[in-house]
């Protein structure tokens, strides 16, 4: 294992969250000299003075920005302004503060929700600007994409080393299973487990089941982030994904089988499907810093279900 992190002080925003906790764990495994995880109770990233105080005290070599207001389709539809403003302002202020405090590198995590609704698949990083995002995700996706523009602008004008990674839909142990803000995998796991316990005859799922999604195991995303932190210093965005897609219908049927649900799955087509398909080209990540996803989706899904059943 490289000694790159052994003398580094690193701030991880969102480091207590789902993805962030895996990143922090991996930093410790790499013998990182100092890992600082700000908490919202004492450091609100929407407040510039809080960010300045954080960077004054921590004096980091690297900032990894994972904090964000994240929700599934339902949560984003209910709170589009919050999704846009909070995500935009946190990242924009952090990048500017990191540059002004002479931080050596900023690692920014974007989202595949920034991609246009319909593009040739698998989607390449060059497609980010070839259309408007799917409308239910647009406030979140556009806010995060602004950080790419900012990172590239600060690189050109100031020589600031900011990199931008575009993460696929994540899943895994420790995910958010909240009924109102969870994404599709934890939402379906929660629904089907509850149905088994209650003896329900059917489970209602949103949409018609035809859209596809690409999922990346959370620990693999954390690994990709640290590989990029060490080895990638360019301005172009990089997809972090698995390179495999699955339909929502097949996903629901698989989860139902794994948790032992034998009832009917009813699709509510009055609810939104979201983006029709998602599948991403991952060749740039492999070429630039050697990342390739290896986790079998079924294995990751079983681990996620087991974690939920044990910890809920």
Task: Provide key terms for this protein.
312 residues; single chain; 15% strand; six-stranded parallel β-sheet; alpha/beta
Overview of the molecule:
The chain is an alpha/beta fold. It has a single domain, classed as NAD(P)-binding Rossmann-like Domain (Rossmann fold, 3-Layer(aba) Sandwich), CATH 3.40.50. The protein is 43% helix and 15% strand. It has ten helices and twelve strands. The protein has helices at 18-29, 48-58, 73-78, 80-100, 138-158, 184-198, 218-231, 248-259, 283-289, 297-311, and strands at residues 9-13, 34-36, 62-65, 105-111, 162-167, 169-171, 202-206, 212-213, 215-217, 238-240, 246-247, 264-268. The strands form four sheets. The chain has a six-stranded parallel beta sheet, with helices on both faces. Strands 6-9 form a two-stranded parallel ribbon. Strands 7-12 form a two-stranded parallel sheet. The longest helix has 21 residues, at 80-100. The protein is globular, with a radius of gyration of 19 Å. The mean pLDDT is 95.
Overall outline: globular
If classified by CATH, what would the architecture be? 3-Layer(aba) Sandwich
Beta fraction = 15-25%
List low-confidence stretches.
Answer: none
Number of helices: 10
Helix content: 40-55%
Give the integer mean of the pLDDT values.
95
CATH class placement: Alpha Beta
Tell me the number of strands.
12
